[in-house]
Amino acid sequence: MDFLFGADKYSDGNLQDYEFLQRLDVTDTVSIELHHLDKSTYEYYRTLLEAQESGGLAPANPINNFEKDVLGYFGAFSVTGNEVIVE
Fold first, then answer.
1. What's 79's DSSP letter?
2. Would you say the pTM of this structure is higher than 0.90?
């Protein structure tokens, strides 16, 4: 499972090209999913990943949308995906 996390700050919703480093063979199946997050959900996951990358020793909990000092986030997001077979 691959996990790519980013924002379209510089592309402003326009198409982007990504270099695909895997070799594909005929009959391989490629699955692509795009998870659409709102800004507050993005900020929660961004700060959570920063905490994980620093060994889990963050100076504070990830940004969340609860009123008290709670670790977690309440939100919803949508997923768009497609699957193709290499010809």
1. E
2. no
